[in-house]
Amino acid sequence: MSGGTAATRDGIRGTALGTASVPLSVLDLVTVGSGRTASQALATSVALSRLAERRGYHRHWVAEHHSMPGVASSSPAVILAHLAAHTRRIRLGSGGVMLPNHAPLVIAEQFGTLEALAPGRIDLGLGRAPGTDGATAAALRRTDRLGEGADDFPEQLSELTRFLDDDFPDVHPYARIHAVPGPVQGPKGRPPVWLLGSSGFSARLAGLLGLPFAFAHHFSARNTLPALELYRQTFRPSAVLDAPYALIGVAALAADEAREARRQVLTGALSMLRLRTGRPGLIPTPDEAEAYEFSHMEREFVDDWLSNVVHGTPDEVRAGLDELQKRTGADELMITANAHGGDARLRSYELIADAYGLPEQAAAGAPEEGAATA
User: Fold this and answer.
1) pTM for this model (two decimals)
2) What pLDDT is attached to residue 361?
3) Main-chain dihedrals φ then ψ at residue 22, nearest 5 degrees
């Protein structure tokens, strides 16, 4: 972990606050619960970003998913622009944009615009998975040759980086094409690029390119240690980083009572079970999840899923996060709290901040509170 000087220099490394050993951050899926609306879920995301900024979380990332009724984060750039208008300090970013779904120039334009709206606060996290099922990915990419998009990821990444830096060679076909807003308008900063992954491919690529790496521990826990080891082994210092920097996404939810935390995380587990078995829908209520009659195989899936969700009282969650950080050596923990209602999610982040003694941050001229949360 690096301190304030490095954080100022590269816009990547944060500073641990309170008793936390590493910076804490937020991963937001903009979940939509049964009986709720996307508008309410998005209002919760605004409230969450404001809370995270006030309580000293380092960054707030939004994930890209498609054709999932329980997730309203299909357009990260649009959501991030909205969050930028309601915050002043916290870093905002994609966790991530699924690059094969988009033309690199479009992503450079979108995140150049975000950087212009919130200078020095934007992260561009990139993944190579579709963020959805195969049929939806084919609709997004207007082709059913999906493997080519993933295989071409390094080339797409190189193209995107050159658009961000406006430095195609003179002989390149895109030499006279400029991502705007961007460097062609004058010297300016640009969002740092992160690579996201749930296996070894992006871990190795991030290491070879000297980029920061974010691993999806929250749904690929078995691969966490091998991927982080591969990233660190292959890391080459670059103009971006002089040493590896890896964060991990962690599913965690705290409640005032352990039983209530269990009720809340069960809703996310049932939602994931339905998604994995081809029955995606809105996030069920805690009562619905408790009343659901799981088959033996379904119960095994749910128990396995929940074994990687840190949940319980604030002290129990803090202990679980500390153990995970120590075991993985992660430089940052990015917490995702999936539950039916916004109130439970917001309460969880507040309780975790309290458990670590994160200091209240000054408002810094932030806009007035917006709509009520869901």
Assistant:
1) 0.91
2) 85
3) -140, 165
Q: Is the separation of the CB atoms in 191 and 168 below 8 Å?
A: no
Beta bridge partners, 211, equal: none
Q: Which two tokens stand for residue 171?
A: 């002989």
Q: 193 - beta bridge partners?
A: 124
CA–CA separation, 23 vs 108, rounded Å? 27
Count of alpha carbons within 13 angstroms of residue 351, beta-carbon side? 23
User: How does residue 67 score in pLDDT terms, banded at 50, 70 and 90?
Assistant: confident
User: Tens digit of pLDDT for each residue in 192-201?
Assistant: 999 999 999 9
**R_g of the chain computed on alpha carbons:** 20
Q: Is 240 helix (H, G, I), strand (E, B) or coil?
A: coil
Torsion angle (degrees, nearest 10) of CA 255, 261, 263, 269: 130
Place 370 in a pLDDT band, splitting at 50, 70 and 90. Answer: very low
Q: Is the peptide bond before 244 cis (omega within 30 degrees of 0)?
A: no
Q: How far apart are CA 147 and CA 100, in angstroms?
A: 10
d(CA 268, CA 41): 15
CA 53/CA 373 separation, integer angstroms: 16
Instruction: Name the H helices within the chain.
Output: 4-10, 38-55, 76-86, 104-117, 134-141, 146-151, 153-165, 200-209, 224-234, 258-276, 286-291, 296-306, 314-328, 342-355
- Looking at residue 312, its amino acid is G
pLDDT-derived band at 1, boundaries 50, 70, 90: very low
Alpha-carbon span 235 to 203, nearest angstrom? 9
Please report, as a single letter, which amino acid is at residue 92: L
Give the whole-angstrom CA distance, residue 130 versus residue 117. 27
Q: Which amino acid is at 25?
A: S
Residue 136 pLDDT: 67
Q: In whole angstroms, what is the distance from residue 205 CA to residue 196 CA?
A: 10
**For range 266-290, the mean pLDDT:** 95
Sorted by sequence, the CB contacts under 8 Å of residue 39 that are 6+ apart come out as: none
Q: How far is Cα 99 from Cα 106, in angstroms, rounded to an integer? A: 10
Alpha-carbon gap, residue 128 to 153, rounded angstroms: 6
Length, in residues, of the chain:
374
Token couple for 323: 């153990």
**How far apart, in whole angstroms, are the C-alpha atoms of residue 322 and residue 257?**
20
